[in-house]
UniProtKB/TrEMBL annotation:
It catalyses: [E2 ubiquitin-conjugating enzyme]-S-ubiquitinyl-L-cysteine + [acceptor protein]-L-lysine = [E2 ubiquitin-conjugating enzyme]-L-cysteine + [acceptor protein]-N(6)-ubiquitinyl-L-lysine. This is RBR-type E3 ubiquitin transferase. It comes from Trichocladium antarcticum. Keywords: Metal-binding, Repeat, Transferase, Ubl conjugation pathway, Zinc, Zinc-finger. PROSITE patterns: TRIAD, ZF_RING_1. Residues 1-188 form the RING-type domain. One of its GO terms (molecular function) is zinc ion binding. Pfam families: IBR (PF01485). The keyword Repeat applies. It is an enzyme of class 2 (transferase). PANTHER family: RBR FAMILY RING FINGER AND IBR DOMAIN-CONTAINING. One of its GO terms (biological process) is protein ubiquitination. The keyword Cell inner membrane does not apply.
Amino acid sequence: CVGCVNTATPVSKTAKLKCRHRMCNACLRRVFKKSLTDPREMPPRCCTTDHIPLEHVERMFDPGFKREWNRKFFQYSTRNRIYCPSRHCGELIRPDDIRREGGRKHGKCSRCRSKVCGSCSGKWHKEPDCPRDDGNAQSLDRARREGRQRCHRCKSMVELEEGRDHITCRCGAEFCMVCDAKWKTCEC
């Protein structure tokens, strides 16, 4: 098994991947479970860019897991994700639910039907300029002082590792902690 390097695992308890490596059922379960919580691990891969097909774990997981995995696969593979800002929702706004009117993007949450601004990811506002949220600005200032910063792509908070200026968010975006520019586009 390429995952646990166990050579005693019977071939019948492994899957042969496109890259010709074998992975045991326990390692397959582990990488598929991990891919639900870590966008960098979605979809699961071995040594190439080809992902490990869900068919290899078809019999290992119940239908509920497979539904959740497919939902997360769609979510994590969506670029420039926007989530519903409603307090008790947080649903991903599907790209099909985002429209452009008069030069402004907006989306509609499929769960709670809230209208969302495509620029600031906040609740929809009629004004062309997005409103400043003072509470949010204070939280972001405090986070920056504590060594955290908001990702410019997915808007989640990212913590800087000690002694580094380069941040890689779980969504894959890379940027400079000093000036917030895309990585390798600044002089920092």
